[in-house]
Amino acid sequence: xxxxxxxxxxxxxxxxxxxxxxxxxxxxxxxxxxxxxxxxxxxxxxxxxxxxxxxxxxxxxxxxxxxxxxxxxxxxxxxxxxxxxxxxxxxxxxxxxxxxxxxxxxxxxxxxxxxxxxxxxxxxxxxxxxxxxxxxxxxxxxxxxxxxxxxxxxxxxxxxxxxxxxxxxxxxxxxxxxxxxxxxxxxxxxxxxxxxxxxxx
Length: 201
What we know:
Residues 56-77 are annotated as: Disordered. Belongs to the sulfotransferase 2 family. One of its GO terms (biological process) is carbohydrate biosynthetic process. InterPro entries: Carb_sulfotrans_8-10 (IPR018011), Sulfotransferase (IPR005331). It is an enzyme of class 2 (transferase). The chain is mostly helical. The protein has one domain. It is 47% helix and 6% strand. A two-stranded parallel ribbon has the order 1-4. It has a two-stranded antiparallel ribbon with strand order 2-3. Helix 4 packs across helix 8. The longest helix has 15 residues, at 20-34. The chain is globular, with a radius of gyration of 19 Å. Residues 56-80 have low confidence and may be disordered.
């Protein structure tokens, strides 16, 4: 315990965060839509809420098209077992909590741990390079990860455009500490969703 306290006081501390709604989109895509292992999450959510709650509330047209690891197509040809609208409903009504979509502020104690640096996933490589520089770490650029385009971010507006605006606003309230502390904007997210609605793609 003393060793941990010493590290918290003397080490440079880094936290990596993500736009809250993009994180939700990623969790839904990975746990309820694309991943072959998603069925355990679907089963738990159905058990928590009751099978009768869930229907196909997401239209085929609204779903992003993706290819799973097994090569089968999902999205354009069939609706997922749990729609994004039902997933959002379960979060708003606190039906199924999980670390993959639980707000950061409730997991990482940002008010108790004085983090020295906040890195964003969408600028992770640049942020880590700056963190290395600030920490006096040199010659380690080779261990930096590659910056890949985010699947969730690419289809962000299309994913959420079927969710009622009042539900998006409710999510904004639930994740408000994350938005405020980590430099994200619910208004910018709403604008991206609105643009997707206008494009109707």
